[in-house]
Amino acid sequence: MKNQLKRKIKNQDQSFHTPIVRGYTSSLLELSYAKSIFLSSPIDDQVAADFCALLMYYDHMDDKENPIDVYCNTPGGSLSGLNMMLNFMGLIETPIRTICMGRCYSAGSVILAAGDERLIFANAEVLLHQIQLSFPTIGEDASDTENYFNFTQTLNTSLLKMLSKYTGQPLSKIRADTERDLFLTAPDALEYGLVDFII
């Protein structure tokens, strides 16, 4: 599996012009000819927008059979950013290969699980949990708090259903397992259905 990834990078046309995407250093941009994305920071709306821009860019290449590699080492992040990324991952035609390099926590674990092919390094780790409640703009009216709580529970159920779909685990098990932080080693993540192979 390692050699296959190495060959992919070596065999690409290195004269290919790379897209200018905010937040990416020149060294990372040089890897764009290999259809590679490095997700190595907390996920916010800007990171999600950059991620989706690269997905769209790579999806317009001629070699749609050659997958886009998403290398993940992220502590997670915002739900809105996660949803944007998942929507685009489902929209494009090119297959996506997700690779957990170090850690895929929270939203990062969902990105990992959503790949068409999911890999994890032997010493990498994954964290699953439910949506963390916060009340940033709640007014004094108690009904506002109740509405926000109910909406958050709806979003949480939607997230758990996605994890159930990606892993093949029953929704009831996903819900019970994620009531507290659930840390998984690479073998644990493989058994749970979050990944397909250990590198």
Give a structural overview.
Helix 3 links the parallel strand 1 and strand 2. It contains eight helices and seven strands, in the order ααβαβαβαββααβαβ. The longest helix is centred in the C-terminal third of the chain and has 26 residues. About 8% of the residues have low confidence. By secondary structure, it is of the alpha/beta class. Helix 3 packs parallel to helix 4 and helix 4 runs parallel beside helix 5. Strands 1, 2, 3, 4, 5, 6 and 7 form a seven-stranded mixed β-sheet that branches. The chain has a single domain, classed as 2-enoyl-CoA Hydratase, Chain A, domain 1.
Features:
18% strand; seven-stranded mixed β-sheet; 2-enoyl-CoA Hydratase, Chain A, domain 1; globular; 199 residues; alpha/beta
Task: Report the order of strands and helices.
Answer: HHEHEHEHEEHHEHE
Number of separate strands: 7
How many strands, what sense, and barrel or not for the largest sheet?
7 strands, mixed
Classify the secondary structure makeup into a structural class.
alpha/beta
CATH topology value: 2-enoyl-CoA Hydratase, Chain A, domain 1
Q: Give the CATH level 1 class.
A: Alpha Beta
* Distance linking N and C termini: 7 Å
Into which percent range does the helicity of residues fall?
40-55%
Low-confidence stretches: 9-24
Radius of gyration: 18 Å
**What is the residue-mean pLDDT, rounded to a whole number?**
84
CATH architecture, by name, is Alpha-Beta Complex
Q: How much strand?
A: 15-25%
Instruction: Report the principal-axis shape.
Output: globular
Number of domains: 1
Number of helices: 8
At the fourth level of CATH, the homologous superfamily is: 2-enoyl-CoA Hydratase, Chain A, domain 1
